[in-house]
Write a structure and sequence with these properties.
The protein is mostly beta strands and 183 residues long. Among the domains are: 99 residues, no CATH class; 27 residues. It is 4% helix and 50% strand. The chain has 1 helix and 16 strands. The strands form 4 sheets. Strands 4-3-2-1-10 form a 5-stranded antiparallel sheet, with no helix packed on it. A 5-stranded antiparallel sheet has the order 8-7-6-5-9, with no helix packed on it. β7 and β8 form a beta hairpin.
Length: 183
Amino acid sequence: MAYTGDLGNGQQVYVENQGTQTLISLSSSSPGQQQSQRCTLETGAWLSPPILFRVPRGLILRLESAQGQQFVHLQAGGISTLATAPSLLDADILPLQVSPSLASNQSAVEIQPMQPMQPMRMGNMEMQMNPMEMRMGDLELRMSSSQPSSTPSQTPGRFCSQCGQSVAASDRFCIHCGSPTKG
């Protein structure tokens, strides 16, 4: 059985008995920020529903099981168990509502594997992931160079190593800077 309680100011507490363990989650949310703290305690099966008390220094959660009563201190700084029973004379009792169990929600949802990524097209551009390929007009790029290209490849341009300008394959010297070209 699971219980939730609204503590105000965007804070919530979630308490669930899972077999011999008790899961306690304290969460707070505000615009642009969300925080959550969790704690799992070995309490045994509950004999009665938990009771939540508001005290001046935070919240006290009382759990009753075959092992006896256990008290848990909840505050913004964390969740901690108390060795002795606190004084609850002037404490306010906060209501807890029955809630669906997180364990049953998690087991009911079966996660399906993702489908492989399909080739993407944008105008005359196409991309594939496996093997990594990209085509744009007449230009084709592949990540693995071990496979021959299915489209006729163009002769790569030659460039001057000195000035970077393009040179013809028949040029022995760069027409822009006069540097000798490599063969």
